[in-house]
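To whoever is on call:

I kicked off a structure prediction for a single chain this morning and the downstream step that reads the tokens threw a length-mismatch warning. I double-checked the sequence; it's 198 residues and nothing unusual in it as far as I can see. Pasting both halves so you can look.
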Amino acid sequence: MSNKNTKHTVFVLAIDGQPLTPCTPCRARKLMRGGVAKPVWSKFGTFGIQMLVETRRETPQTTIGVDNGTKFEGYAVVCGEENSLAVKLDLPDKKNIVRKLDERRQLRRARRGRKCRRREARFDNRKREGFLAPSQAVIVGSRLKTLRELFRLYPIDAVVFEDVRFNHAKHRWGRISQQWRLARQSCEASLLNRSRLV
């Protein structure tokens, strides 16, 4: 007798690696004991199975919700009407990134003062369209890596982003949100072009 409270938390991959409908831990154990599935693990450390035989490919509507933040981010996968996964992502510490950039700048300035063959002046190449600050680029890379792994594990059909409003006139530090907006646009562009994620 199956327990109705048991959630379908175990991701399932087809024999060719394509994501299928998640199953319950009980069903995953039965499939492995029957020799028709093998255990696999995701990059998050979560347990799943991969089928060793062909099976049906029908999947319910699967949606991923993304809650962006400055230090933490949340991801949730809803398969049908059930929450199959909830993940909290710790973003890289910006202080460490800024410190490494300062060290790199000091080394670069020291190289310029050495007795060596001079190069052309490149002081006028700082304004670039769509430029992302290195601290934001690292965060965008972390987000895309997480989304790429979730797309590999679950048959996701739709992506939902949490949207926020920002009053630039009220807050004097509104220029900082420009980088955040560019970072979000970069993630959304990758999602629209799924081939960049898969």
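Update from on-call: the warning came from a stale cache, not from the record. Cleared it. Sanity check on the structure: The chain has four helices and eight strands.
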